User: What shape does this take?
Amino acid sequence: MTKENLLWIGTGLAGTMFGVLVAFGASGVAIIFFVILGGLRMTAIGWSMRTVADEKWLPTWVIIGFAIKLGGTLARFYMVTVLYGLGDSFRYYRVGTELATQWRQGQIPDLIEGGALGTRVVEAVTGGLFAIVTPDMLGGFIMFAMLAYLGQLLLYAAFRRHAKPHQLKPYAILIFLLPTYSFWPSSIGKDAIVLLALGMCAYLVARVFEAFEIRWLLGLALALGALGVVRIHVAGLVAGALIVTTLIAKVPTRGDPVVAMRRLIVLGSGLAAGLVVLAVFPDVFGVDITSTQDLDGFTTDVLRRTSESGTVGSGGAVTSPADIPGALAHVLLRPFLFEASEIQHYFAALETTMLVGLTIWKLPVIGRNIRNWRSNPYIVFSTFYTIGFAVAFSVVRNIGIIARQRGQVLAFFLCVVIGLGWEEKPRVSPMSRVTPEQTSSAVD
Assistant: This one.
């Protein structure tokens, strides 16, 4: 019997045990078995998604990443419930429990009324999960953390479609272990759902750009819809990057007329998605995007509201291309160590310091490889998405908010840094270490 079969059998047994506990309402004890079930499933996923390029190390790192994720979940739970004692997670938990009770009684709850669309979606997801699993606050955190971790796995799988084998392990380690991913999207809330939907979008975009394969467009439309109902502006950034990449990226079969036709279909689909975002955006944010005055007022209001408390960064909204480098630094690399004022800020600052060092280290190689940039459409997509995200979030001046939202862009930024800057080390054979003098002595 293979290891894969044993893993799936173990997963089934754990699921059966967990179902029995849920049926009897043993929520506290069930959390332990839920973690065991999750670990078995992640192990099975790690084995099933491996390829020749990463089969030696991927299953192990998937499990390590899941263990780190659970640690981040416990830390996030402690911060929300003990240090602060408030937050959106409490609201989602309370409403989700009420919705779950209605589902269990055979009633169809009202999912239309009750706040903004994104909030209602998270409440509905929480209620759906709690209708299956006995409601528990910590259990809810773990369930949402698992959803987020699936998003991380999809982000890795997307990168793998267009990366070189030697680039996979450093990217995977960063995506699985960075605090941005192990801590922030590990609670009941929008961040976990957004990360899952964004991972789905990234993977399907990567498949589309292999040869502009239109068979993936329906799935991409559904993933964009799932992302858009929670954060329409992030879905708009994905659509925008898709459009620009379709226009300028190269593909290996670009001389094929069939591929050219598919490129036009992908472009049309991207434009359609962009038009939907433009149509919905005013209703979500209450701003007329055709009015310069309304847009200026909107950005000014965001600047004001995100500058009233916490650690505030200097600067403002991007108004010209010259402002883009500063926006990238603000969104990707803040807070700096000297700006940290709370313990979570110090962890974020250590992470950003590492990112600064990694970027500086790889910058010369990136400069040499930039001429090949258009030949990798997923890197092109990641570049424009990263720039677009930095421009959009440059109006947010609160460093804490930026650190929390960075998970929506960091994977794409790392794709550019590692995809262009991580070269394979030449392998030195034993004979190459022999000096000419040693060779002549051996011959003599």
Q: What stands out?
A: Residues 257-285 form the longest helix (29 residues). Residues 22-26, 439-444 have pLDDT under 50 and may be disordered. Residues 303-423 form one domain.
